[in-house]
Amino acid sequence: MAAKRLPSTGSVAETPKGALHRPTGIHHNFEVAGMVDSTSGLVDRAIFTDEGLYQQELRRVFAPSWLFLGHVDQLKKTGDFFTTFMGEDPIIVSKGKDGEIRAFLNSCRHRGARVCRADYGTTKNFTCTYHGWTYDLEGKLSNVPNVAGYDENFDTADWGLVEVAQIDNYKGLIFATWNPSAPELPDALGGAKYYMDAFLDKDPEGTVVVGGIMKWELDGNWKLAAEQFATDWYHVNMSHASALMVLSPTGKGPKSEIANTPGRQFHDEQGGHGAGFPTHPKSRFDAQKVHEHYDYGFLRERLGDATVEGPMTTGHGTIFPNFSYLPINGSIRIWHPKGPNKMEVWAWTILDKSMSPEVREAQRLYNLRTFGPSGIFESDDGENWSEVQSISNGFVTNSVALNLQMGIGSEREDGVYPGTTSELYSDAAGRNFYRKWAQLMDTPAWHEEPNE
């Protein structure tokens, strides 16, 4: 799927027909520079709880950024569609008659109801159940009941669904942005592409989705989850101690050299992305059948020794702002914001196309047991985020800064892994995540007037 910019149907890029001028100052913008000190590693806890900051996030972090929508395997034939969110905006992603994948705001241009209420399916058009306005797979308004009731100036061509400004995919993962001037997707991903390839590019045939989408709700701010997946190996031995015991052959947990594994942590200074990974060869927590499936000699030739020994182990990563992944078992997820105190987690399992049905099933079940909604690792993480959020609204609690100082000064180009890296046990990618967040929060987005 080629990148698309400035679509011809109604879009925020070109100002849809009938758009009204929103008065300057209707939104109050907060300066957050003093709330995130990425140099000293201190973060103001209010960034997780304040409703005004959350509304500003929707305008200045989510609206301008490339956001994950889904996998191309979810759209196999003409008319296939699924629904999702970009920030809190409801989205339809569909495959048109021309084979193009498009994304639209899931809101009728008449009175604003959703035109599609299903999670996924196959259709020829989208019809609003309120008054019957109907849109085709390209987002064009194709039918208006009692159209004779409108005057001669009414033109259905002016009232199509609002389309995203840009849409593209990276090795099967579909992203979109409302920002017409955003860098193209490969440029936005920057140095993170190398680390993503550790799970997206193992198979020359690409990847497929297995097992559908798992969805659950958590009490907690979306940034807590996104930051952890970018930076936090530090919690593993403490938070997941019982899970590690269950998975170890002895039942006593991993050996010391594995539990205290060496490793590296990457962060992309421009994009805000982060990834971490151990470099011990036995740090590969996956189903035995899957481990036996891989030809590590082939993977070394395809991806290089450093990738197989590093990012292809039991690592973690976040593509800013809210897409995260676990490369070894193909678990990908998005942290949908639902206000400052709540998020929805949507998780997929993506696997190599060449895997046999038996290997696919082994990995699917492994993911359910570890990182499904009630997985032994996932439950630990959700409990931590909810615990942090549950007390963060207290007056004194909310005024005490959080410490992200681990690894300050360890950032460097190590000559082995691309980009800026630090030690595995480090907050470097977390500091970078919040630095990028603060930069966007204090920068007027493309949709804001200069004097706003």
Descriptive overview:
The protein folds into two domains: 66-178, Rieske [2Fe-2S] iron-sulphur domain (Rieske Iron-sulfur Protein, 3-layer Sandwich), CATH 2.102.10; 190-441, Naphthalene 1,2-dioxygenase Alpha Subunit, Chain A, domain 1 (Alpha-Beta Complex). Helix 4 (222-231) packs across helix 14 (428-441). It has 452 residues and is of the alpha+beta class. Strand 15 (263-267) and strand 16 form a beta hairpin. The strands form five sheets. Strands 14-20-19-18-17-16-15-22 form an eight-stranded antiparallel beta sheet, sandwiched between helices. It has a four-stranded antiparallel beta sheet with strand order 1-12-13-4, with no helix packed on it. A four-stranded antiparallel beta sheet has the order 7-6-5-8, with no helix packed on it. 26% of the residues lie in helices and 24% in strands. It has helices at 51-62, 185-189, 192-200, 222-231, 236-239, 241-247, 256-259, 288-293, 296-303, 305-309, 357-371, 378-391, 395-398, 428-441, and strands spanning 4-5, 36-37, 42-43, 67-71, 80-86, 89-95, 101-105, 120-122, 125-127, 134-136, 141-143, 166-170, 173-177, 207-219, 263-267, 274-278, 316-319, 323-326, 331-337, 342-352, 402-403, 420-423.
Write the layout of secondary structure elements.
Layout: E1 4-5, E2 36-37, E3 42-43, H1 51-62, E4 67-71, E5 80-86, E6 89-95, E7 101-105, E8 120-122, E9 125-127, E10 134-136, E11 141-143, E12 166-170, E13 173-177, H2 185-189, H3 192-200, E14 207-219, H4 222-231, H5 236-239, H6 241-247, H7 256-259, E15 263-267, E16 274-278, H8 288-293, H9 296-303, H10 305-309, E17 316-319, E18 323-326, E19 331-337, E20 342-352, H11 357-371, H12 378-391, H13 395-398, E21 402-403, E22 420-423, H14 428-441
Helix pairs in contact: 4-14
